[in-house]
Design a protein that fits this description.
- The chain contains six helices and twelve strands.
- With 214 residues, the protein is of the alpha/beta class.
- It has a single domain (2-50, 68-106, 114-210), classed as 3-Layer(aba) Sandwich (Rossmann fold).
- The strands form three sheets. Strands 1, 4, 5, 6, 7, 8, 9 and 10 form an eight-stranded mixed sheet that branches.
- The longest helix is centred in the first third of the chain and has 20 residues, at 27-46.
Length: 214
């Protein structure tokens, strides 16, 4: 598991911007910070890919360069995941894409809830590198439910799970139910409240990025 906050960098600036209530009044800035963190995690994950040498012509000669060999599929949970997804796609412009509509079913504080998954579109996943992203890894149930739904499109060779902020409980849940997944997280917070929101967290990422929903 890779945690950005354990390695001081410019990522700490973007994480702070997402959490800061004085900055959260600006949705465009919130989306931009999500995008930047997607770019940073895309770079870190790319270090695990397979590469092959290729001769690249330059104006004055030829240079051997390394080219990604992995067949990438970038899967995102709507709607909060869109700016985060765009950060990855900015670096992996040739990746295929999958989109999943999933949300928490109605429940009372303190009660268990189910993940409702109503929309999914995906390319063939057989033998490919699947990167499943969601800004908030709260209980971990959404990630596990979505991955299981994606398996109808094939079995990926490698699974990466990327999030901006995760709870310790969510991380533990994913590691238990998806033991082969490689986790990439901006920061880990210690607890969930009775409504299963991350504390201190940052609030509802979807509402902050795109406006409050009814």
């Amino acid at each position: 598991m890779f945690v950005l906050s354990q390695h001081p960098s410019i990522a700490s600036h973007f994480l702070a911007g997402l959490r800061d209530t004085s900055l959260q009044r600006h949705p465009s800035l919130f989306r931009q910070n999500l995008l930047h963190l997607g770019q940073i995690l895309a770079y870190e994950i790319s270090k695990t890919f397979q590469y092959s040498p290729q001769e690249t012509p330059t104006p004055l000669g030829v240079k051997q360069t390394d080219q990604i060999q992995n067949q990438l599929v970038l899967a995102t949970i709507l709607r909060a995941g869109l700016p985060f997804h765009q950060g990855f796609l900015a670096y992996w412009e040739h990746a295929e894409n999958a989109f999943i509509g999933a949300y928490r079913g109605k429940h009372q504080a303190g009660e268990a809830f189910e993940i409702v998954q109503r929309y999914i579109t995906s390319p063939d996943l057989d033998g490919k590198t699947l990167v499943l992203t969601d800004p908030m890894l709260a209980t971990g149930k959404s990630i596990v439910t979505v991955y299981e739904a994606l398996l109808q499109y094939g079995k990926p060779a490698v699974l990466h799970v990327a999030a901006v902020i995760g709870s310790q409980a969510g991380v533990d849940y994913v590691r238990k139910h998806l033991p082969t997944a490689q986790l990439w997280i901006g920061d880990i917070d210690p607890e969930l409240n009775t409504s299963s929101y991350i504390v201190p967290g940052l609030g509802d990422a979807g509402d902050l990025a795109f406006g409050e929903k009814l």
